[in-house]
Specification:
The structure is a single chain. This protein is about 50% helix and about 10% strand. It is α/β, with parallel strands linked by helices. A hairpin with a 6-residue loop joins strand 4 and strand 5. The longest helix is centred in the first third of the chain and has 33 residues. The N and C termini lie far apart (about 80 Å). About 35% of the residues are buried. It binds zinc ion. The site of zinc ion has 7 residues, from helix 6. The site of zinc ion (ZN) has 7 residues, from helix 6.
Length: about 240
Amino acid sequence: MCEHCCDAADQPRLARRSMFKFAAAAAALAVAPRAFAANAKAPPKPKNVVSPDAALDRLMAGNTRHVEGTGKRHDFKHEREALSGGQNPFAGVLSCADSRIAPEYCFDTARGDLFVCRVAGNFASADIVASFEYAVQVLNTPLILVLGHESCGAVDATIKSLKDGTTLPGHLPALVDAISPAVKAVQGAGGDTLANAIRRNVMLNVENLKSAAPILAQFVDDKKLRIVGGIYQLKSGRVELMT
Ligand SMILES: [Zn+2]
């Protein structure tokens, strides 16, 4: 076989080989984004496929039932099979870890309805931003509520630590660092410092989530995601919205 023939015979083979290499590389590149792509499966809870505004209306209607003591009976057995294959929560909630809040109860929701992240002082750490990125991009969650509450011990401890110049024991200074921007913002403003700091902390973390590039900020810009704040009132159970 002459050189020319050899070249001619190999050319398609080489082209095919290059094509396979290219396809393999493209597939490898696609693996990571695909693992974080929107879920293409049929949603296990079709009622949870709602707009951001409708999600907020539903959340607040659930809170009204919670306040009035007219909560629904949640049949966990009935939903178990549908939820074993996936989830599509209609709202994310960033709540304080305080045992008196319980977001699923406070919005009268069932399993698969809320994507809840909790930390004392309800602030958006990198881990929590990442968790909500998963909820929004993969699970198509259209709403996030940052839920502060009255008499928050984490905010109160931060106020005292900053006022006294003391360093709290253990890992507690991490909470103080995260909550102190809200406390510093209301210092000297008069009124109830704890109540003001709780509200400011919610507002700051709403803004932090709204501006969390590239994922949450883009979804907010595209109006596929709404992020709001609220304060849970301990005596009534009512959530006061701060939109
Ligand atoms: Zn708290």
